[in-house]
Amino acid sequence: MERGRLVISYAHPDDESFGLGAAIPKWIDDGIDVYLICATNGEVGTVPEELRGKHETTAALRLSELECARRHLKFKEVFMLGYRDSGMPGSETSRHPESLCYQWQNHPANVTDKVKEILQRARPHVVITFNRYGGYGHPDHIAIQRATVKAFEELRTPASGAALNGVYRPQKLYYAAFPKATIWLRILSARLKGQDPRRMGRNQDVDVVKTLEHIEPVHARIPVARYFDVWEQASSCHASQGGGRITRTSRWLRRFLYSKQGFTRVFPAPERDRVDEDDLFANVDLNSRQT
C-alpha cells in the first residue's frame, strides 16, 4: 500500500509550527509523508533588536528558523515560493511588487500555477491551508489560501477532454481551524487588562474579534496531546516571532485548549456541520490510479 501524502500550504516561516506543530508529528508517526509550501520569506516580520545582528537580513534569519523547525517536524520536503512578505493590510509593504499580496492581486494565475505545480509534484492525497479569512486576516494568509483552493479545484477538474486515468487529482481539502475557546479567552483577557481586542499583537494590527467572527465549522478533530513536546521544540525555533510563548502556557491549559486539532472539511463537502472525523485520511484511497 502507498504511504499517505499531505501538503500544508502556508504563508510564512513559523505558520507551520505555531499552527500545526502538534499535528505534524502525529502524521509522521502515522506513516504520512508531510510536505510544506511556504509562500514567503518572512522579511517583514518584527524582529527583536538582540536577534537582528545574527544574520545579514531578516529573511535569512526567518529561513534559518524554519530550517530549525523542519528538523523537529521532519517534513518530507519544504517548497519555498520565494515571495516577499506583505505585512498587514494597508501597509506600504503590501504594495511592494514582489510581495505575495501584490502578486496575488495582479497575477493570480501565476501564484496558482506555482502551487499547482508543487501539488502535481508531491501528489498529496490531502491538502491543508488557512480558512477564508486567513486565520487572523493577514493578506499573505488570504492570498495563499485563495491560490491553494484554486489550484486544488483545477486539479480536481482536468481540462476538457483529458483522460482521467493516471491524471493526478487530490482527494481532500481542509482548512486548519483556530480553537474557538482560545479566541474567546484572548478577547476576555484583553478586556480584563483594559486592552482593545480589535488591536492586538506586537504591532496592534490584529483584530481578534474579527478572527472570532470568521471562525468556520469544524468537521474533524485529531488527537495531538502526545506531541506537545515536539510542538514546543518547533515553535521555539522561531525565536524572532516569540516562539517560546507556547511553553509559557501551563500544561493543564494546553491540554484543555489544544489536545485536539480541528479542521474544516472543504472537499468533499460535508452534508452537515458536525465533527464526524478523527483522521484526515478517512475514506482516502491510497492506491487510486489518480493519485
Describe what you observe in this structure.
- The chain is 39% helix and 14% strand.
- It contains twelve helices and seven strands.
- It has helices at 15-20, 23-29, 49-52, 58-73, 100-106, 108-122, 134-137, 139-156, 180-192, 208-213, 228-237, 251-258, and strands spanning 5-10, 33-40, 77-83, 126-129, 172-176, 220-223, 260-267.
- It is globular and about 55 Å long.
- The model has no long low-confidence stretch (mean pLDDT 92).
Question: Topology, please?
Answer:
Layout: E1 5-10, H1 15-20, H2 23-29, E2 33-40, H3 49-52, H4 58-73, E3 77-83, H5 100-106, H6 108-122, E4 126-129, H7 134-137, H8 139-156, E5 172-176, H9 180-192, H10 208-213, E6 220-223, H11 228-237, H12 251-258, E7 260-267
Helix pairs in contact: 4-11, 5-6, 5-8, 6-8
From the structure above, extract its key features.
291 residues; alpha/beta; 2 domains; single chain; seven-stranded mixed sheet; Rossmann fold; 39% helix
CATH architecture of the largest domain: 3-Layer(aba) Sandwich
CATH superfamily of the largest domain: LmbE-like
Average pLDDT for all residues: 92
Order of helices and strands: EHHEHHEHHEHHEHHEHHE
The top level CATH class name of the largest domain: Alpha Beta
Number of β-strand runs: 7
Helical fraction: 25-40%
Q: Determine Rg (CA atoms, Å).
A: 19 Å
Uncertain stretches of 5 or more adjacent residues: none
Q: For the largest sheet, list the strands in their spatial order.
A: 3-2-1-4-5-7-6
**Which term fits the overall shape?**
globular
The largest β sheet comes out as: 7 strands, mixed
Structural class by secondary-structure content: alpha/beta
What separation lies between the terminal Cα atoms?
12 Å
Task: Give the amount of beta strand, in percent.
Answer: 5-15%
The tally of helices reads 12
Number of domains: 2
CATH topology-level name of the largest domain: Rossmann fold
